[in-house]
Design brief:
Chain lengths: 275, 294
């Protein structure tokens, strides 16, 4: 009895530590974004003295043109990347999971190796390729750049997810006269909704969060959000409180998305990788 | 002309978009990039000039490369040796039944989904030497000296960056361990307990061996993140930019700096190839050691 009570206590202490570790830095930044610069930059910092809260930084950032543009461009690119990765990825993953063809296993392993290649090694020639194709500094070009890491990774995950659907279901569809394509979209994807949704969130978040490609492939016309945050941090264009507000705003869509779909994420995370 | 089997033709049709993409945006760039390593080439002057293995030879005499290599290995070791066990600990904890468990699990999603550059920003402000609340709290606890700047200290800056990285990575490792723990064979755990095994013994003899493949997956993931992922780029660029001095330069960042701002594409590509080799060797060793499927 006593032992189990000690264990209970230890679990709660551990859980509080986990919550503090994950949440506190983020919450502190929210408080930073709500302060006036004078209060922020004088000692002691906020939780140790009382301050006046204001939404001024948010008003400023929301009306700051480069931020608004970045937000819209990032949203457009993330949606396009997700659509492309899901489409090309599902087709590829279906072939690997369902169709017997020579070199299937080799292909599956190759995808893993491709994922491990550092994006940096490809970055320079990609800029050159995009330029030759005439899509450097366009939405399509940025979508392809973001898909370089995402497409192999998500194809790998989707293969694992599609393999969890019993082959008989697929066969039955074929006997009913469905084409393979129809069976993929009408049967296999609806049956793996949970995993599929997880891939969707993964792709969106990864594209939204990217900094390196955004910084090198988008030059004049395509200005994504994360490079703006870096600008705020290295240049002196904005105040610390405004910088914090920009950080909170730019992480809001992905955090909201992951919290809204947390059941799918918690249950489905890395299914492909673990099994 | 050989005729493909119908199945193969079908598969090819499905894989066509994937292959075309891979060809244009992965295979071609990787080969071109390797060609760059054998050339003297700059962004402003895209005409490669063949110089053989000079770029590779240069690695041996380059002091900054050696420093970045040491720092990369330290970062990788810390990120993996601390991050993965931390993730495992969190997963074991959140696998227990208690009130508020789903809230604690949801909290893990915040570091995981926060953009890495925003993670950098969060700690850049919270650990600011004069007004960062975390700095101040650590000062009150007597851990930091007055207005201590962890990112400005040559000996501790790299450690500081690694802690920021862990904030982002450990929750991901925890999720992966958690999902594996769902399949832990309850019967083995129960029967071990019936025979009087302590919790620690159950963990060592049942849980840990069961988690071995997951451990390998997490370590490899940790390696990719710390060597060539956002943990090796966004966080460095955002917080220290490689400084103070060159104390937080790691190979990936050095490769980027060499290729772009310093305008030496050939040498930058060479450094990124070294990163690739380290990543592949690290993954192969771990797979050999732990990833044996029944």
């Amino acid at each position: 009895m006593r032992r189990s009570r000690v264990k209970r206590g230890a679990i709660y202490i551990g859980a509080i530590a986990v919550v503090l570790f994950t949440l506190m830095p983020y919450v502190l930044t929210i408080f930073t974004s709500l302060q006036r610069e004078v209060d922020l930059t004088s000692r002691p910092p906020f939780p140790f003295k009382s301050v006046t809260f204001t939404l001024d930084s948010y008003t400023y950032i929301l009306s700051y043109e480069p931020f608004a543009t970045g937000f819209l461009h990032s949203a457009a690119v993330a949606v396009m990347t997700t659509a492309f990765v899901l489409l090309a990825g599902s087709l590829g993953a279906y072939a690997i999971a369902r169709i017997r063809f020579p070199g299937r296993n080799f292909l599956f392993n190759l995808i893993v190796i491709v994922y491990m290649l550092p994006a940096l090694a490809m970055l320079i020639p990609i800029v050159v390729s995009l330029k030759i194709l005439g899509i450097l500094d366009t939405f399509i070009g940025m979508m392809f750049a973001h898909s370089i890491i995402l497409l192999p990774l998500m194809t790998w995950f989707l293969t694992g997810i599609f393999e969890s659907v019993p082959g008989d279901i697929d066969e039955a569809c074929r006997i009913d006269g469905y084409s393979r394509l129809k069976s993929l979209f009408k049967m296999v994807i609806p049956l793996t909704k949970l995993g599929f949704l997880m891939i969707l969130v993964f792709s969106f978040i990864n594209s939204w969060n990217d900094l390196m490609f955004a910084n090198t492939v988008g030059i004049v016309k395509i200005k994504l959000l994360q490079p703006r945050i870096l600008e705020f941090m290295s240049g002196a264009r904005v105040l610390y409180t405004q910088m914090a507000a920009a950080g909170i705003l730019s992480s809001l869509p992905v955090i909201a998305l992951s919290i809204a779909l947390q059941k799918q994420i918690v249950k489905g995370i890395m299914r492909g990788a673990v099994k | 002309m050989p005729r493909f089997h119908k199945e193969t033709r079908d598969a090819l049709k499905f894989l066509l978009p994937f292959f075309v993409f891979l060809g244009v945006f992965t295979v071609y760039p990787i080969i071109t990039s390797f060609y760059y390593t054998l050339n003297d080439i700059t962004l402003s002057h895209l005409k490669p000039e063949f110089i053989g293995i000079d770029n590779y030879a240069k690695l041996f005499s380059d002091k900054l490369f050696r420093q970045a290599l040491t720092q990369t290995l330290l970062y990788l070791a810390f990120h993996t040796a601390v991050g993965v066990p931390l993730g495992l600990g969190i997963a074991l904890l959140l696998n227990e039944e208690f009130r508020g468990r789903s809230f604690a699990r949801a909290c893990l999603l915040i570091p995981w989904s926060t953009p890495p550059i925003v993670a950098a920003l969060i700690f850049f402000i919270s650990l600011n030497p004069s007004f960062g609340p975390i700095t101040y709290a650590l000062e009150l606890l007597g851990i930091f000296s007055h207005q201590f700047s962890i990112f400005g200290n040559p000996n501790l800056a790299l450690f500081g960056l690694a802690v920021v990285s862990l904030w982002k990575s450990a929750p991901l490792f925890a999720f992966i361990f958690l999902s594996a723990l769902q399949n832990l064979p309850i019967e083995s755990v129960e029967s071990a307990k019936v025979y009087g095994a302590s919790s620690f013994m159950v963990f060592r003899k049942v849980t840990l061996p069961f988690l071995k493949p997951t451990l390998a997956v997490n370590c490899i993931l940790s390696g990719i993140l710390a060597l060539s992922g956002t943990q090796a780029f966004d966080i460095v660029v955002g917080i220290t930019g490689g400084g103070p001095g060159y104390h937080t330069y790691m190979l990936y960042y050095l490769g980027y700096m060499t290729a772009f701002p310093w305008n030496d594409l050939g040498y930058g590509a060479t450094i990124s190839y070294i990163v690739t080799i380290i990543a592949v060797v690290f993954a192969m060793v771990l797979l050999k050691l732990w990833y044996k499927r029944a």
